[in-house]
Specification:
Structural class: mainly alpha
Radius of gyration: 19 Å
Helix content: 55-70%
Number of domains: 2
Largest sheet: none
Number of helices: 8
């Protein structure tokens, strides 16, 4: 498979999967726990609330758990550093592969505006689901799957099943 615009091939997905597995193993060995992303966003929000009103943040169960060292602890939070590293690593990868550009990837039958609405809408639903589930898909699928959590494997099967079920509804936007 290759990038439509540059024609350059993407990394082999099996090799990328092995790479993600090695990163997950390294996270367990070095940090003592697996990967995830939603905790980073919760830490940033809790720190923002604490900066505005520290008493309210400390008295609210939704925020207090993310502020063990006060509002500045956000910069020592493993998940915040992880998400920052993912962002910087993605930028470095795009630059090294010659794929860094400002563009909205979309199919010929959808406008850039509609594509962004779908993307932000889907992201909002995923974020809400992650908050309600008290964890995100990366933490549940990667970390939970790696430790053979039955609930994680049920989630993985359900996520792939839903993807296959709904793909025909969105596929026409890309062809």
């Amino acid at each position: 498979m290759s990038d439509r615009r540059s024609g350059r091939p993407y990394m082999d997905p099996y090799l990328a999967g092995v790479g993600i597995g090695c990163v997950l193993l390294a996270a367990f060995v070095v940090m003592g726990h697996g990967l995830g992303a939603s905790g980073a966003f919760s830490s940033v929000v809790a720190s923002g609330v604490a900066l505005a009103d520290s008493a309210r943040a400390a008295s609210n169960d939704a925020y207090a758990g993310y502020l063990p060292g006060g509002p500045a602890s956000v910069f020592r939070d493993w998940f915040v550093l992880e998400v920052a590293g993912v962002f910087l690593g993605g930028m470095a990868s795009a630059l090294l592969a010659g794929r860094f550009r400002r563009a909205v990837d979309r199919g010929p039958r959808i406008s850039s505006r509609a594509r962004l609405v779908y993307a932000f809408g889907g992201g909002a639903v995923m974020g809400l689901g992650a908050k309600l589930a008290r964890g995100c898909t990366s933490g549940l699928a990667l970390t939970g799957g790696a430790v053979f959590s039955v609930g994680s494997w049920i989630f993985i099967a359900g996520a792939f099943g839903a993807g296959y079920l709904f793909a025909p509804l969105f596929r026409r936007q890309w062809l």
